[in-house]
Amino acid sequence: GENVEQHPSTLSVQEGDSAVIKCTYSDSASNYFPWYKQELGKRPQLIIDIRSNVGEKKDQRIAVTLNKTAKHFSLHITETQPEDSAVYFCAASILNGNDMRFGAGTRLTVKP
Amino acid sequence: DVKVTQSSRYLVKRTGEKVFLECVQDMDHENMFWYRQDPGLGLRLIYFSYDVKMKEKGDIPEGYSVSREKKERFSLILESASTNQTSMYLCASSQGGGGNTIYFGEGSWLTVV
Prior knowledge:
The complex is a heterodimer.
Chain A: E1 4-7, E2 10-14, E3 19-25, E4 32-38, E5 45-51, E6 56-59, E7 62-67, E8 72-77, E9 86-92, E10 101-102, E11 106-111
Parallel strand pairs in A: 2-11
Antiparallel strand pairs in A: 1-3, 3-8, 4-5, 4-9, 6-7, 7-8, 9-10, 9-11
Chain B: E1 4-6, E2 10-13, E3 19-21, E4 23-25, E5 31-38, E6 42-49, E7 56-57, E8 64-70, E9 73-78, E10 87-94, E11 103-104, E12 108-112
Parallel strand pairs in B: 2-12
Antiparallel strand pairs in B: 1-4, 3-9, 5-6, 5-10, 6-7, 8-9, 10-11, 10-12
């Protein structure tokens, strides 16, 4: 089955700096890559996703990039704010499949 | 708003007890999932179901079983709870097929003593 690896496990940045989280996946058939954010004590929620027919997608301060050849994808957060502090999970699945595999998570801390 | 409701937020059970974790979703989703969340290990898939009475093993099914008798309800069963099953359990649902947003419940904290 699919195996998703995520790095780093923890990341600390100063407010206003950028943050980058990277994931790799093993199954070349995977073609849907969402990112979830989990604030302390809350449920994970989708923040952005990308499908394999595009290489990059942006939503305000958040962007995702995908390199299908290398089987890796990344989350980029620019102009970080304290409210970006959370655990971020990447995931991968096949578009016509039903299961989803997640990475181990990255704890992002944004220092004011 | 999609709602995924886990009936028990905090449970304490004894070793060897049978434990039921219940999950209900109100969006007529075909897919339902049970994940386990442990520090440093992320979200690990225990079981998922893509239809009533259908179930598929995830990555860590040992020691667990599931039941989906109705479309809106997906239950996780620990036949004989052990201390290494102390964890946060997250139920989730999504529309059928892939590439759809997964909606999570608030989680059930289970402690086995």
